[in-house]
Amino acid sequence: MSSSASVERMMGLAAAWLMLIALLTGVYAASAMTGHLHADGHTALASHLNALMGTFLLGVVGWTMPMLSYGPRGKRVLAIVLIVSSYANWLITGVKAALFVAGIDLQGQPKNDGVFVALQIFVVVPMIAAAIAWIVGFRKRGAT
């Protein structure tokens, strides 16, 4: 198996697991929304949707890996950043549902601010960088 195929397989497997997690998180969201679980139902639903969107992102980027001009190491780095960020987006959002915090800005409240910082470090900044790297990867080798 070529190293490119192993990166594609890694992304496919990560997407498959994240899909299962997304489906199970749907139970978490439903339980929160019906009051059977003490968590913010709308944020729990966002966690469910983040996992679904992450699944699709990993699948699509994995499918486009052969089209990218990066070598095996570059493709692997891009895959790892996207996998970690996709799982982090699901997990941090699920935790913030249980904490009843927004986590979208610094408010001087430790739980909220911790969620905000975690989202910036593990989701926002890496996802923006990965999106740019994905776009740049479509350039032909040697193109300026």
What descriptive keywords fit this protein?
144 residues; 4 helices; flat; mainly alpha
Topology overview:
Blueprint: H1 3-33, H2 41-64, H3 72-99, H4 110-137
Helix pairs in contact: 1-2, 1-3, 2-3, 3-4
Structure characterization notes:
77% of the residues lie in helices and 0% in strands. By secondary structure, it is mainly alpha-helical. It has one domain (3-137). Helix 1 runs antiparallel to helix 2, helix 1 (3-33) packs parallel to helix 3 and helix 3 (72-99) runs antiparallel to helix 4 (110-137). The two termini are 31 Å apart. The relative contact order is 0.14. The model has no long low-confidence stretch (mean pLDDT 96).
State the gist of this model.
With 144 residues, this protein is mainly alpha-helical.
Q: Report the principal-axis shape.
A: flat
Structural class: mainly alpha
User: What is the string of helix and strand elements?
Assistant: HHHH
Number of contiguous helices? 4
Beta strand % = under 5%
Oligomer: single chain
Largest sheet: none
What is the CA-atom radius of gyration, in angstroms?
17 Å
**Unreliable segments (pLDDT under 50, ≥5 consecutive)?**
none
Count up the domains.
Answer: 1
Straight-line distance between termini: 31 Å
State the helicity in percent bands. over 70%
User: What is the tally of beta strands?
Assistant: 0
Mean pLDDT over all positions: 96
